[in-house]
Design goal:
By secondary structure, the chain is an all-beta fold. 0% of the residues lie in helices and 60% in strands. The strands form seven sheets. The chain has a four-stranded antiparallel β-sheet with strand order 1-28-27-26, with no helix packed on it. The protein has a four-stranded antiparallel β-sheet with strand order 2-3-4-5, with no helix packed on it.
């Protein structure tokens, strides 16, 4: 089950740059990526292999999250303390929501229509109502947050904390810190869920990916990776996990049935941003040196 190259798409300004998180709007196959150096969100069409649009006004762009059913995209402007709400069809910014000084990680509670924004300056989390712009809750986190997700079956948010190495558990109603799951490897960073298998995958700076039981928080398995990771994506159909590693520049592909590395894709130094289209089975890897999105099909 190899990753087959499909080509690449040039992204303005067409010279060395820097990206952060990305996500895919599944209905259209459009990839939205935080272009940190460009203070923008870039939109790439994976099927047409074209750059669609630059959405400006997102200073120090960081977290990006597509909400599929609602057809909206959230983008964290870490340099401005706000969240952009983007219409996925028209690509217009329909509103901006105040979020705290430096928002980064984002997670969406589809039950209540609430957005979690984890702040790397205040070491806090805010629960936002993007329809009204209201902050409906705020709490202090145990340390610096990295990525976060919402677990619909457990009705809880999971937030990776760099130090102390743990996953913070937040209940959405009432909005509260419900507990911590310790992680045995330093620097939890990338985070994604295997909802069917009831596991959370945590990729840490110490060079390992751990699988945690979503019921108990127990580490049930781990596997070594080639370096400090960033974004990770779980491919439920193939039971594979893609782990982007900026140094030296590769993607480790983990077979999650046995928690072993099944493949390794060489990318480019600094390439730590990816996005995965589970409908089309396409992985996008953003290459900062050439300012391009490299596209691969998962066989």
């Amino acid at each position: 089950m190899a990753l087959t190259p499909l080509g690449s798409v040039a992204v303005p300004p067409f010279h060395a740059s820097a990206f952060d998180h990305g996500d895919v709007h599944l209905a259209t196959g459009r990839i939205f990526v935080a272009h940190t150096a460009g203070n923008s969100v870039e939109v790439v069409d994976s099927e047409g292999r074209t750059h669609v649009k630059t959405i400006p006004g997102c200073p120090e762009a960081s977290g990006v999250l597509c909400v599929q059913d609602a057809g909206i995209v959230f983008a964290a402007a870490r340099g401005a303390g706000r969240i952009l709400v983007i219409d996925a069809a028209s690509l217009a910014v329909v509103r901006e929501v105040a979020s705290g000084p430096r928002p980064n990680g984002l997670a969406w509670d589809e039950r209540r229509g609430r957005l979690l924004a984890a702040d790397v300056a205040e070491l806090s989390a805010r629960l936002l109502n993007p329809a009204t712009g209201d902050c409906v809750g705020q709490l202090e986190l145990p340390g610096r947050p990295r990525w976060c997700v919402y677990d619909p079956d457990g009705d809880q948010f999971l937030v990776n904390i760099r130090e102390p190495a743990c996953v913070a558990l937040l209940t959405p109603e009432p909005f509260a810190l419900a507990g911590r799951w310790p992680v045995s490897t330093d620097g939890p960073h990338g985070l994604d869920l295997d909802s069917e298998g009831r596991r959370a995958f945590v990729a840490s700076d110490g060079g390992k990916v751990a699988a945690l039981d979503l019921g108990t928080g127990e580490e049930v398995a781990e596997v070594s990776i080639a370096g400090a990771p960033d974004a990770i994506w779980y491919n439920a159909e193939r039971q594979l996990l893609y782990v982007a590693i900026g140094k030296p520049g590769l993607v480790d592909v983990i077979d999650t049935t046995g928690m072993t590395r099944s493949d390794q894709l060489v990318t480019e130094a600094g390439a730590h941003t990816t996005a995965f289209d589970r409908v089309r089975q396409v992985l996008a890897v953003f290459l900062p040196g050439g300012c391009r999105a490299a596209l691969y099909h998962q066989e």
